[in-house]
Specification:
Elements (H helix, E strand, L loop, with lengths): L2 E3 H11 L4 E4 L6 H10 L3 E4 L3 H14 L5 E5 L3 H5 L1 H9 L4 E7 L15 H5 L5 E4 L6 H13 L6 E6 H5 L1 E3 L17 H13 L3 E5 L1 H5 L3 H11 L3 E3 L25 H9 L2 E5 L5 H4 L2 H5 L3 E6 L13 E4 L2 H17 L7 H13 L13 H11 L12 H6 L1
Parallel strand pairs: 2-3, 2-4, 4-5, 5-7, 6-7, 9-10, 9-11, 11-12, 12-13
Antiparallel strand pairs: 1-8
Length: about 400
């Protein structure tokens, strides 16, 4: 069995799991990890100016392309605490990122040693798993488990804390026999999908609410195909913005405080049935839950079992990965359409489109300094439909939506 430093084994595992880019700031307690990356040569490192920035870079990298997992690296103590905001952001939005921190030697833990912060305890509330590795031989297996957890079920971040003596210890490890663990994602059954579609088909004014889980599962095309097969309008949450093009005839707008689409809110209130896929019913989307739920039935599809019923109890809950559910939804919907079982939704769609045309927010302000609404109006006129832009949070973001 080949012998190597535990940190060299860790880097080999990262490469075998598909990692080729990392973001971070070097420091004494994590420098062995950096030396292992340099020695192996398979991971490109982006030097951040602040470790919190590295954690947000890692999140952005994951979001940029399906299958990516962003990695952020920092030294002991404040590097880990600086990552907490990025880890919380990733956890809240179900984004897998891997945070790697250095740590004081094991013998110096809990002895007021320099920067020997108990980052394992601090990070646990904002990660799927946070662990300080105390046995060198466990290092490659901890990283193997980290990737398994990040990819399985509801995706999310993991923090691995490496005491410097653990990094430097010699272990036996053969990367040629290493294989990533199988990924677990729950899948809806046909019976569940048929029940949900029956409820939708019985409704007069149904809507599909698309959540961030649709984007995380790279299921945007399936969502649009499903909506088009049924002829049912879609309201994306802010996390799902872009899952259906803004100019698509079935894009009914967004609702809630964070978007302030008058037409989206009006369409939601006019509906009598909502199928939520990969969404959380967050309060910035729902507003008053009593108003949001009154007079309509709900089906909720989510990869996380404890998300169903957390905000309110749906009429039907289905635990499933969004892509797996949408594949079945499309299959059954096409069968029902071919058999003539689906209702004609053209009148309902026309109503939604009418609201979208006539219930626009005011954007043409002549104020000086210029209001955010006018800035976005000018941007929309100057740039094409595929231009992406980033806003700050608050009123500026609301105007941008």
């Amino acid at each position: 069995m080949p012998k190597m430093r535990a940190v060299d084994a860790a880097v080999l595992v990262l490469e075998k799991e598909g990692i080729d880019t990392a973001f971070g700031v070097p420091g004494a307690a994590i420098n062995p990890f950096y030396s292992a990356m340099k020695k192996s040569g398979g991971i490109s490192h982006v030097l951040a100016r602040h470790v919190e920035g590295a954690s947000h870079m890692a999140e952005g990298y994951t979001r940029a392309e399906p299958g990516n997992i962003g990695v952020c690296i920092g030294t002991s103590g404040p590097a880990g605490t600086d990552m907490i905001t990025g880890l919380y952001s990733a956890q809240a939005d179900s984004i897998p990122i891997l945070a790697i921190t250095g740590q004081a030697p094991r013998a110096r833990l809990y002895k007021e040693d320099f920067q020997a912060v108990d980052i394992e305890s601090i990070a646990k509330p904002v990660t799927k798993w946070a662990v300080t590795v105390r046995e060198p031989a466990l290092v490659p297996r901890v990283f193997q488990q980290a990737f398994h957890l990040m990819r399985s079920g509801r995706p999310g971040p993991v923090l691995v804390d490496l005491p410097i003596d653990v990094q430097l210890a010699e272990i036996e490890f053969d990367i040629d026999t290493y294989e990533p663990l199988p990924v677990y994602k729950p899948k809806a059954t046909r019976v569940q999908i048929e029940k949900a579609l029956t409820m939708l088909n019985d409704a007069e004014k149904p809507l599909i609410v698309s959540g961030g889980g649709v984007l995380n599962a790279a299921a945007e095309d399936l969502l649009v195909q499903f909506a088009e097969t049924l002829g049912v309008p879609v309201i994306p949450t802010l996390m799902s913005w872009g899952a259906i093009p803004d100019d698509h005839p079935l894009m009914a707008g967004m609702c809630g405080l964070q978007t302030s689409h008058r037409y989206g809110n009006a369409t939601m209130l006019a509906s009598d049935f909502v199928l939520g896929i990969g969404n959380r019913w967050a309060n910035r989307h729902t507003g008053s839950v009593e108003v949001y739920t009154k007079g309509r039935k709900f089906v909720h599809v989510d990869i996380e079992p404890t998300q169903i019923g957390r905000v309110f109890g749906p009429d039907l809950g289905i635990v499933s990965d969004a892509k797996a559910a949408l594949e079945l939804f499309v299959e059954v919907a096409k069968e029902w359409k071919a058999a003539g079982k689906l209702k004609d939704r053209s009148a309902w769609v026309t109503d939604c489109q009418q609201r979208k045309r006539t219930m626009q927010r005011k954007t043409h302000f002549d104020n000086v300094p210029m209001k955010p609404q006018r800035v976005y109006e000018e941007m929309n006129q100057a740039f094409d439909r595929d231009t992406c832009f980033v806003t700050t949070i608050g009123l500026s973001q609301i105007a941008g939506a």
